[in-house]
Amino acid sequence: MEADRPDPTRVSGVLTPERRTAPLAARRVTRMRRVQKKDLPSKTCPVCVRPFAWRKKWQRDWPNVIYCSARCASQRTAARNAGAPARPSSRPS
């Protein structure tokens, strides 16, 4: 029965006694640190007047991003026209 089992020192993913006693820091793979949200560039949305931060989704197009969401982008004309005087209708009264 013992002959059927693979040697645990040769199986990948199995910790050998030497690796179990090694300090945790020695076993860790170096990882990249994440950028904190406060360190990302931000802009202010002209519709809702709230700040919004850079997102990976906008990586290539950040200079052209104006609105924080699709909802604000769809309401842009309403916000633009809110401060403008009403246009006279072309219909005769």
Q: How many beta strands in the DSSP annotation?
A: 2
- Summarize the biggest pleated sheet: 2 strands, antiparallel
User: Order of strands across the widest beta sheet?
Assistant: 1-2
Shape: elongated
Q: Give the SSE string.
A: HHEEHH
Q: How many helical stretches?
A: 4
> Hey, roughly how much beta strand do the residues contain?
5-15%
Description of the molecule:
- The chain has a two-stranded antiparallel ribbon with strand order 1-2.
- The protein has helices at 17-21, 24-27, 70-74, 76-82, and strands at residues 42-44, 51-53.
- A hairpin with a 6-residue loop joins strand 1 (42-44) and strand 2.
- 23% of the residues lie in helices and 6% in strands.
- The protein has 93 residues and is α+β, with helices and mostly antiparallel strands.
Indicate the topology.
Blueprint: H1 17-21, H2 24-27, E1 42-44, E2 51-53, H3 70-74, H4 76-82
Antiparallel strand pairs: 1-2
Output the keywords:
93 residues, alpha+beta, two-stranded antiparallel ribbon, 4 helices, elongated
